[in-house]
Specification:
Layout: H1 9-21, H2 25-32, H3 38-53, H4 61-78, H5 84-88, H6 93-108, E1 114-119, H7 126-139, E2 143-146, H8 157-166, H9 175-190, H10 196-199, H11 205-213, E3 218-222, E4 225-229, H12 247-257, E5 261-263, E6 270-275, E7 278-283, E8 296-302, E9 306-311, E10 317-318, E11 320-324, E12 329-332
Parallel strand pairs: 1-2, 4-5, 5-7
Antiparallel strand pairs: 1-8, 3-4, 6-7, 6-12, 8-9, 9-10, 11-12
Length: 333
């Protein structure tokens, strides 16, 4: 793991003062543009994370934004699947990923608007996920998040997981992701693995390891808004928050959330709602393997809270229906 010598607060402050007062950080990053000195790149990116948290004044806003964008680009190159950094320095990959996450979050608080692509309930539907990603590319989103349930039901779980990993899409663990290891163990012990219908649903150990380490929830700070990403609710991967559920359930979740925005899935139907000054956004299900599934993805625009739901097969926007002013719930058909 990277262990930069900047943990002591006083040393951090002195280092930042040196940078602000004289060291040409832009020249450093220009020199690193084609560098293979990965330790030096990681060290420079670490300095930027400290700059992002300490002595920057408002007049340095644009400079900081450019530095962070450059650092994010460097780290994305290092973390690309075909990068020799990953093969040569596997022990440094977690540090690089952590720095990338931190710098991306800093960047999201330096820009004026943010367009977030949201997917959920992919259920091993590779074609559906690729269609959603094409929608996001056409709409030019700034980032993508996933509300879980990326495997089971469909046949291409390994391929779906590889895309989520390769694109570094923040993802939480859904109920099907949570139970995948147990289900796979049962399949291998009890099902006839000579049958193609069984083999095509088997997942690699690498995929299962990834699913097991997915977090139950993730928190972000986007443009000053506290964002909570979960699969179902803030306490369970199995409970539902849908248009047919009690308003008091939404209110209870909102009060416990310590968030301004909750992004969730699980119901397979797109929805937006607002209770107790907390906004709920559900993109529906990417997968169309069940009749109840919407075959949709969504885009959330901040700071306007514009929430748009797209049919992934056509790329067309779906208009809201069943709008009820008193309940402040909007569903999409």
């Amino acid at each position: 793991m990277l262990n930069p010598p900047f943990h002591d607060d006083e040393r951090v402050r002195r280092l930042i003062e040196d940078v602000v007062s004289g060291i040409n950080l832009r020249a450093l990053f220009d020199a690193l543009k084609d560098s293979r000195d990965y330790q030096q790149i990681l060290g420079a990116c670490y300095i930027l994370t400290r700059l992002g948290k300490h002595l920057w004044q408002k007049q340095h806003h644009e400079a900081r934004k450019k530095f962070i964008e450059r650092a994010v680009h460097l780290l994305e190159q290092m973390l690309a699947p075909d990068s020799d950094f990953i093969s040569q320095y596997p022990d440094q990959v977690p540090s690089a990923q952590s720095l990338w996450d931190e710098l991306k979050n800093l960047h999201f608080n330096l820009i004026d608007s943010l367009k977030v692509g949201i997917v959920s309930d992919v259920h091993a539907d590779l074609n559906g996920l690729n269609q959603a990603l094409r929608v996001f590319e056409q709409q030019k989103v700034d980032l993508i998040v996933c509300a879980g349930d990326i495997v089971e039901k469909g046949k291409e779980g390994d391929a779906v997981v590889r895309i989520i990993q390769d694109r570094r899409i923040p993802c939480v663990q859904g109920n099907h992701d949570e139970q995948a290891s147990g289900n796979q163990k049962w399949f291998r012990e009890n099902a006839d693995t000579n049958l193609e219908s069984v083999r095509e649903r088997l997942l690699t150990q690498e995929t299962l390891d990834y699913l097991e380490q997915l977090p139950f929830s993730l928190r972000f700070n986007w443009l000053g808004y506290r964002v909570l990403l979960v699969h179902a609710t803030i306490n369970s991967n199995w409970d539902y928050l849908g248009a047919q559920h009690k308003i008091e359930t939404f209110k209870a979740v909102a009060r416990q959330s310590e968030a301004d925005i909750i992004i969730h899935g699980h119901t397979h139907q797109a929805l937006q709602a607002e209770f107790v000054a907390v906004r709920f956004y559900n993109p529906g299900a990417v997968s169309v393997l069940e009749a109840r599934s919407s075959g949709t993805c969504a885009i959330l625009q901040l700071p306007t809270f514009d929430f748009r739901v797209f049919n992934i097969a056509t790329g067309n926007e779906q208009l809201p229906t069943n709008r009820t002013h008193d309940n402040r719930v909007t569903t999409y058909k």
